[in-house]
């Protein structure tokens, strides 16, 4: 897979790191890991399959799942073909999801089949007739989905795209990379467009402020579906060629276990997360010596 030297965008930054360190570990989740080369191969294959389905530059690809590796791969695949990622909080209600998908005119959704007791396959099957722009559903899970030709499994699309050629898209700094939705506490959710250029510049500045290098690794306990996880945790890792350790969703004892076993050096979070960790009795007996820096944001800090 060749990437032009003049290529720009989140995907180009990722592939540039792949060229420098193909065998270094980029992504870790549970007991699985992906080198830069392995993640690049899967993301590229998925991008080829998206393009084969007719997804084009500017089309919206929504994502509904927690911090899973498939989220990262799908975002990179969307970026490579110039599609715009629309990350959704998996805790959203069916009405919230329908509103956002209609608002963005999403053409494809990548979703967990089930998570936290929610059967997303059933939810989206009910929504499909109400969303004329939604053409395809890509599910992450093990269910056999032979009965609907608009529904594909994530792994099947990765397999189908291997060895295929991609029609390259020219990405400009101002081109949208993602549409992130506000919390909607006082009104309806509002989409905020984030460009490739603005996010890459911010990630580079953040990484510089933290003195991050390729020898670092970030424990991503903040959600990838918001700017903290997507723009700070993921993109600073890509900007510096450093590793990313995913925690599905924040839980104190699991975070402490990951710090001990995966030895990340960077930890981001909101104040509540750090307070919970400091107050947990298990913290006193945990080895946190690998940590050296991180960003705290989202609320006032005492």
Compute the number of helices.
Answer: 10
> Over the alpha carbons, how many angstroms does the gyration radius reach?
19 Å
In whole angstroms, how far apart are the ends?
49 Å
Mean pLDDT equals 94
The SSE string, one letter per element, is: HEEHEHEHEEEHEEHEEHEHEHEH
The count of strands amounts to 14
Q: Within the largest sheet, what's the order of strands?
A: 2-1-13-12-14
Notes on the protein architecture:
- With about 300 residues, the chain is α/β, with parallel strands linked by helices.
- The protein has 10 helices and 14 strands.
- The protein starts with 9 loop residues before the first helix and ends in a 23-residue tail after the last helix.
- About 45% of the residues are buried.
